Records
---
Amino acid sequence: MYYIGVDLGGTNVAIGIMDESYQLVRKGSTPTPANDPEGIVKAMADLCRKLVEEAGISFDEIAYAGIASPGIVDREAGEVVYANNINFKHFPLAKLLMAEIPLKAVYLENDANAAALGEVKAGAARGAKNSVMITLGTGVGGGIIIDGKVYMGSNCAAGELGHIVIEKNGYPCTCGRKGCWEAYSSATGLIRMTKEKLAACPDSKMHARVAKDGKVSGRTAFDLSREGDAAAKEVVDTYISYLACGIGNLINIFQPEILVIGGGISGEKENLLAPLRPLMLTESYGGGVVKATELKIAELGNDAGIIGAACLGL
Amino acid sequence: MYYIGVDLGGTNVAIGIMDESYQLVRKGSTPTPANDPEGIVKAMADLCRKLVEEAGISFDEIAYAGIASPGIVDREAGEVVYANNINFKHFPLAKLLMAEIPLKAVYLENDANAAALGEVKAGAARGAKNSVMITLGTGVGGGIIIDGKVYMGSNCAAGELGHIVIEKNGYPCTCGRKGCWEAYSSATGLIRMTKEKLAACPDSKMHARVAKDGKVSGRTAFDLSREGDAAAKEVVDTYISYLACGIGNLINIFQPEILVIGGGISGEKENLLAPLRPLMLTESYGGGVVKATELKIAELGNDAGIIGAACLGL
């Protein structure tokens, strides 16, 4: 059998057809129609049909489709309860997709949760019973896997790991609280810290890089730190210390077998993991006494959402 | 059948015999022998024998005994991995108790986890699928119930909810980190805040109360706040704001059906809950949009550990 995985993003809808060994035999993407929920369903259905045809299979061979959606998702009802960036409010996405194409079932999950499931089924946390995934991107996303399944809480809204306050009365977060982990450990937070340091350090080599790139990015400080720029190194050290603080919190709460780090900043790989590992000895309770959580970089990259979605019915 | 519940504390061993309707038909306690692990096992066995006899039942009618122990507990091995206050290190408590008295089985769990289970089975969170319990005492303890079972993580050390940093580089915590929730929301934290306010406000009515009581306690600020003392009210407001911050974090992570507040400070009941409830609208993600976690005061009081321990094999 095959499984369709749909990763619904604010910019693109990415879809893949996965086989039983978690390989994507076909994938593609199409722009997400803006402010047009019905148009999104139609675009999704069209791309599914196209990929199934290109793969040379029939819908009879598709066990189900899984959809990873932003926002709060009601799995039981197959409904996106609320997703502001794509203008969904109590939108019965699963039912509407089933009305368009001959699918046996459609499963729905929050995108960060689906990515965490993908990493457990086919990525960095393969085989873990309990794992936590964080996604360091525009925000800080979170997905919690307990007993091999997505933990969604009593109202499908659990796992907002970026919205743990780590600095009371700290930097304002988009969620309305102050000092959320997301305000420091997201790429947005890193860019803010980089800009603050640039303003304070006119001699930093980061200025030349910013002039060349035309902007400050999440790579500015990491790249220049490797070139020996002291100001850049300070930014990276500060960023890592916030990251360690938040990861230490998650370990003290979950003590997962594996904690997976994904999202754009995870591209730094060992530049993140090497300084984080020793910090975990002091940032986690029982550090050095209990079996430590293994920190790993996500393996599925941009396909995590698609693969996680395709795994939803397994 | 009956179930023995043992709550092993640093000062006392409290034991109860529970019937099938979660009632304690008999309970008692005995001092915990200091620095004497084998003596603890013996005291435990003696009290079990005495209570079984007093209850007029036989060990044949006891399904099992459950033990709630401080520290890190390996449930599978029946071993207390580490508990500094009673000097246990890889101590095979379950096996040793079974060698003393004719029990069919002995289960072991961390005390905060056992209390959380007790509240789910027979207390404030009765029937909840997912719930979180916090204990506001000398420290801040935590227990996580998922799908009706204690969540213990991959190494039996999960649920250290007091050791979530909420103020990076804040007040030093006993665990070695800085700014843990425990450093603010424990009775110890409340007493520290009260003392700081006393030093800053020589006119506060709290001074007279402290002179009368001979000490600052967790009740000083709450009691005088009710009597209109402005300094006391400021302490209470600050304490509540830290409590709300930590509870908001837990809701964003778990979105449990019920969050149970236990421990000495929970005796304030509505004085805690009334100001906390509206704060949750802004401190939790999707507040006002998703079904809110219900905040409740623990119902089992000092028996939570005994009852939770007695429920371990159910």
---
Amino acid sequence: MRSLLHASFDPACRFVRLMLAEKGLVARQVETGPGDETLAAHNPAQTVPVLIDEPPTGGEIAIAPAAAIAEYLEEAYRDPPLMPATSAGRAEARRLFHWFDGKFDAEVNALIVRKRIAGGGTGRRWGEPEPIRETADALAWHLDYLSYLVERRAFLAGDRLTIADLAGAAHLSVNDYFGLVPWADFPDVRQWYARLKSRPSMRPLLADRIDGTAPAPAYADLDF
Amino acid sequence: MRSLLHASFDPACRFVRLMLAEKGLVARQVETGPGDETLAAHNPAQTVPVLIDEPPTGGEIAIAPAAAIAEYLEEAYRDPPLMPATSAGRAEARRLFHWFDGKFDAEVNALIVRKRIAGGGTGRRWGEPEPIRETADALAWHLDYLSYLVERRAFLAGDRLTIADLAGAAHLSVNDYFGLVPWADFPDVRQWYARLKSRPSMRPLLADRIDGTAPAPAYADLDF
């Protein structure tokens, strides 16, 4: 059957889980990481996520990275569409997907989140301070940009749910687990995220836990 | 008319120039970089490349980053196709595009090439040594993987030219300008690159020069 090689708190993996759920596609989820032979066999780059699909046309396809999985799922399982129909709409949805997958990941996640999830806990040496202030500043800059978008649009890329929203929710959810997101300062983004959080596709993500690290109090709370 | 905001020696920009040329699409090429208002207006992430197209359906669309431009061009200008027709073929072409765009860029270009092209010259402080050995090791590892592919296939992703080859040629060409690629050790990759280098789409790239830095002797030589 279809399976997803993933890591529960990797934002790109969360994005793919959301996309699968929104399209009503079931996948066996296999937690994995660097050094895993199954991962290396299916993705020479040894990164997660990797989707191993058995398409209706037969055979087995391994797809990576997340950007390629998004294009594949949109081509192979059109209904419901998670990209707009127009060229301009698609360009906007893809631009924002890459905004999170590239820029947000490098400017925000790299500071704290990626170290904590890699370490399975805090992921830092005893006594080593975390860049709390830098992360807060970087997050505030991004939340400010997201505010600009959601003040003008119902969803990030326009008037319908797209891969841009799923990428945004995936990335913010991991930061939110660690209580890093200053929701009170960005009410419009909070309202957008509350709508995303209420979708059934988000439920499994909100149930994930990291051993030894409890989520921030409002992490799974739909009225945060 | 159609225009491309780019930087001549940025590998992702070179990829888009190759893709446009292979599809027979003319674009006004505008050299740009961070801080440019035109760039900021068309791409809030302020990265290059940005393609500003006037599609047959009317209007103007700004598309970024390179991965989104590749998908856009393939959808809007199908002929000649630069992605395979099958899901598996497309997944493989995209996987290898992202191999260069993400992994190769972080593991190879980040060491020397990105610093030199950002600095418009050597891009390093006087006396600061360059990571020559690390770059050679990283490049050798990647060339070894490319050898594995081209021993089995006419082109990187299969039996036809795809975005994977164009991404590979774009990234290797910049390293080649600086004489970093040990072609003699990887004859199969050299043979593949010689075929790519002979395509008309490569000619403008091979004519580019960086002020104050001459290319390696065989950079533009088709029989290197």
